[in-house]
Each structure stands twice: as C-alpha cells, then as structure tokens.
C-alpha cells in the first residue's frame, strides 16, 4: 500500500511499482476519487472520456502519475517511502478571474462575499509574525467600512503559529494553512504576501509584498505607512492602485507546482520522523523552484533547522547573488503619477 498526500490530508492507495519507474494501480478501482465507468473515469459530474484515459491505462494497471496529469494534478512518487504527493497542475488564469475559493479552519472565502478581503499570508518563521497585531488593528479600523482582514499562516505546524495568533487577539479571522493548500491556490512563494479581493470575489490586487510595521524596513525596504494608506484608499474609495496589467494572480509554473508536491511529501515525511527522506524532497523542490522561499525556509522547522539561523542567511545570500528578489512589491498609486 502507498500513502497519498494531498491538500486534504492522507489516504491509502493499493498500487505497485512495475520496475520501469511507473507506479500502477489496479484497473477498475477508484483512483483519486475518480471511478471507472463504461464511458470513462468520472468524479461527480466530471468525466474523463475513454479515449483520453487510454494514455494512462495499461494491460497491467493504471499508471498513477499519468492518470494524475490527466485529471489536473502533479504526482511525485517515492517508491522507497511508499508515498505519493499531489499538487494542482498549473492552469492559466484570465484577467479579472474570481479569486480561488477555499475553506480552511471553518471559514469559506465565499462567506465573505459582499465585503472586501485582504488575504494576508505570514508565518512564525518570518519576521512578519510581528506584524500580526498591526494587521488586526487595520481590520478593526476598516471593518466598519466593509473590509475583512483574513490572515493565513504558512506554517506546517499549527502549534508554531498559534502563540502569535493568540497574541494578536481574535478580532479578525486567523487561519493556519498547514498543508499549504491556500498558499498553493494563491501562488505564494514568500511571506509576507497580501492579496486583495473585491466584494464580488474577484482579484483587485494580486500577490504583493506588504508590511504592517517598519521593524525590518532596513532589510526589505518596504514602507508600512504606504501600505496602510493604499489599503485605506482601496477600502474607502475603491482605488486598488494598480493598472490592468496587475489584475490577475501570477500563474504558477510547472516547476513550481512540482516543487509544491515535493514540499508536501517532505512535510509528511518529516512529521513521520523520516527526516533524511524529507531532506531529499526539500532538495528536489529547491532545484525546481529555487526562488520559493515559502518552501525552502518554511520547511526548516520540520527539519530541525532554525529559520532565523545560518540556513536562512545562506539562502538569502544565494538568492541575492543570483539576482532573485526576496520581496516583490507591486507599484503603488504614487508610482503611477
């Protein structure tokens, strides 16, 4: 049996390696929630026709990785650890698309339809953890004007995030994304990252590096007061401060999504105590998406490494030497003048 890890948790899969690098599941049995019907593979109202499924079906069984690709997933298989991790395959997003829906810790994004939402990604392994009380203050200030600040911790352990959430108070919805599901939907590659969503559930301002305090301004060069004023301008006057070229989420690349599957597998392995195996998948993820700090730094605590220690500064130096930005702020209204 193999363990399958996805954004919802784990399940088991009856499958066997065929000796050629493929993992085969028995023909005719459900796979990833899809069931074989005479006319193809179906899941709810969605069906994969027989002629399309033929590329994954063999006389000896169903090729698990090939089938995953057909149903919009990236699969990473570790035969030695008898595990399969899934992530969404990249998909282009048209301008003005609805913000990806999600349900986490009892909150659904759709519950907030009719209000503006500032989705704030942070983590206990980032200095932005000190900004959480300031984001709570922004929520309290602008909530009467139709804004809800939703903070999303990109921690792989809820216990790491919880003390910072409690210290900030319970004035705003504070979620913990231990499986990286929401971060994956919103293409988060570092924190802090903020996404603005309008009353109709559409992207108003995509992934943006914003701070709520100036504690680390000497390192990141970001002005928290400018961030606050931009937020107020959007909430009170409807000006998101960006042109049409910044009204869509940055789409993930195939490498980034495969890296996320490796990261998901690494996190599960680390929690299972298989740290050396987890390190292999972190290295694979880093090779595929070296710029993804949310993966590389975010997994350090699970590997027993200090995310504020030498490993982080080595990562920072590596990216700076390669010319890869750690922070990706969008233009402000002032920049457009």
From TrEMBL:
InterPro entries: AhpC/TSA, Thioredoxin-like_sf, Thioredoxin_domain, Thioredoxin_ResA/DsbE_sf. Gene3D superfamilies: Glutaredoxin (3.40.30.10). Residues 93-227 form the Thioredoxin domain. PROSITE patterns: THIOREDOXIN_2. Residues 1-20 are annotated as: Disordered. One of its GO terms (molecular function) is oxidoreductase activity. This is TlpA family protein disulfide reductase.
